[in-house]
Amino acid sequence: MAISDKARDFWDRISPRERRLVAIAVIALPLTVIVWLGLSIHDGLVSMEMRNAKMRKALDVIGDLKARGPAQPADDIVATMGVDPLSLDTYLTNAAQKAGFTLKGTTPRNAVTRNGFVTNSVACSVSDLTIDQFKKFLQEVETASKVVVVTRLDVRRDFKSKEKLDATLEVSTYSKEPPVKGDAGSGSGSAAGSSSDKKGG
């Protein structure tokens, strides 16, 4: 027997009162499902908006840090800058510890010498960080030393948890270009030559 025949047979066997109840249930069930779906979607949108608000705050902080850019060191910084570059690996490890996580490691880049300054850079990746952890880490990196800046930043949400972030960044530090040793040697040689000439004369 087909399903339609069974339904018709059931409908014929029930009383008029039961038929009214069945009709009401047929109408009420879809409405109940629609209301439930609407409430679920609303709650989901509220949660998404809260996550987006947190994300926007984090991106505002990140945008502010990036807006500073890898500019040449200011004059007051240059006055106190040495020729020995800062150890970025140690520097970033300390910043991560203050932010409440452990940095897995860094990848050094080739040093670049330009306009009398040497730029040393490293790349690193962080994952599964809360927005507050990432914000504190960036602030520590940017403020603990005046000769360190974030020169590249790529932030994305963690696929496992929408409340957390993954990021890849490049951090650079500046130092003065050390004097060329050959210049000092040639000067000493000239002075020695002059002294020998005087003795010979």
Describe this structure in words.
This protein folds into 2 domains: 1-68; 71-178, Ribosomal protein S6/Translation elongation factor EF1B (Alpha-Beta Plaits), CATH 3.30.70.60. Helix content is 57%, strand content 21%. The protein is built from 6 helices and 5 strands. It has helices at 3-13, 16-68, 75-80, 88-99, 131-143, 181-200, and strands at residues 107-108, 112-114, 117-130, 148-157, 164-176. Strands 1, 2, 3, 4 and 5 form a 5-stranded antiparallel sheet that branches. Helix 4 (88-99) packs antiparallel against helix 5. The longest helix is centred in the first third of the chain and has 53 residues, at 16-68. Residues 184-201 have low confidence and may be disordered.
Radius of gyration: 35 Å
- SSE ordering: HHHHEEEHEEH
From the spread of the alpha carbons, the general shape counts as rod-shaped
Put simply, the count of helices is: 6
* Overall pLDDT score: 76
